[in-house]
Amino acid sequence: MGGAHFAFTDRWGGVSAAPYDELNLGGAVGDDPVAVRTNRELAAGRLGVDPGLVVWMNQVHGRDVAVVDGPWAGADVPAVDAVVTARRGLPLAVLTADCTPVLLADPVAGVVAAAHAGRPGLVAGVVPAAVEAMVGLGADPSRITARTGPSVCGRCYEVPEVMRAEVAAAEPAAWAETSWGTPAVDVAAGVHAQLDALGVRDRNASPVCTLESGDHFSYRRDRTTGRLAGYVWLDRERDDA
């Protein structure tokens, strides 16, 4: 049985120039495509995975999930916000710059998922949709390990009161207040509440707030900026090596 691997990047150790400095892994933010490709190769190399096997998404803040068994053919990457696989050794990736990256794994069933949970995705239920797809491939929520990476925290994610009410109606745990006393949303807290309701007990959340951390990209802070990545994969079994 192969073990699960989870990884989240910061902004350092790449080749992109300002304002994408340095390790921008997002290909649709205006950065030099050659730099992005180099950064993806650098990140994969440090993780010990094949950069050509990493499955990326065309993220659109929805709840659609794709079940995959290999990288996309050609350059046509579908618009989804979660990918799931039962192929051991296949790395899945999610891009963020304030949204919550969600990595999920059931090593017993050999199933992993990566999901992009921003405020709209939280309300739409992208994480429950990803877990549902995992269960369809044999995963058991009680065996799933969940990791959420750096994202904007509830003390910093200011939103209009109407928006906070809308999000809280879908997931009450996401209700928050900024450190200066205005309405806010805590997406990571909402994600963990959804996972808990689904029976996913083995969970861990990054303490890093992207808006507060100069070591991480933040769209709310900088607007034109790079993207971080979260990666999840399972070890290949010996007879599949």
Which keywords apply here?
single chain; alpha+beta; CNF1/YfiH-like putative cysteine hydrolases; 6 helices; 24% helix
Shape: globular
Rg from alpha-carbon coordinates? 17 Å
| CATH C-level category | Alpha Beta
CATH superfamily: CNF1/YfiH-like putative cysteine hydrolases
Spatial strand order of the main sheet:
2-3-6-5-7-10
- Per CATH, the architecture is 4-Layer Sandwich
**Unreliable sequence segments:** none
Q: Considering DSSP H and I runs of 4 or more, what fraction of the residues is helical?
A: 10-25%
Number of helices: 6
Strand content: 15-25%
What do the pLDDT scores average to? 96
SSE topology:
Layout: E1 4-8, H1 33-47, E2 65-68, E3 82-85, E4 92-96, E5 100-106, E6 111-117, H2 119-124, H3 126-136, E7 145-148, H4 161-170, E8 175-177, E9 183-185, H5 187-197, E10 202-205, H6 219-222, E11 228-234
Parallel strand pairs: 2-3, 7-10
Antiparallel strand pairs: 1-11, 3-6, 4-11, 5-6, 5-7, 8-9
Pfam families: Cu-oxidase_4
Cofactor: Zn(2+); Cu(2+)
Family: Belongs to the purine nucleoside phosphorylase YfiH/LACC1 family.
Q: Would you kindly provide a written description of the structure presented here, covering whatever features stand out?
A:
A hairpin with a 5-residue loop joins β8 (175-177) and β9 (183-185). The chain is of the alpha+beta class and 241 residues long. The mean pLDDT is 96. The protein has helices at residues 33-47, 119-124, 126-136, 161-170, 187-197, 219-222; strands spanning 4-8, 65-68, 82-85, 92-96, 100-106, 111-117, 145-148, 175-177, 183-185, 202-205, 228-234. It has a single domain, classed as CNF1/YfiH-like putative cysteine hydrolases, CATH 3.60.140.10. The strands form three sheets. Strands 2-3-6-5-7-10 form a six-stranded mixed β-sheet. A three-stranded antiparallel β-sheet has the order 1-11-4, with no helix packed on it. Strands 8-9 form a two-stranded antiparallel sheet.
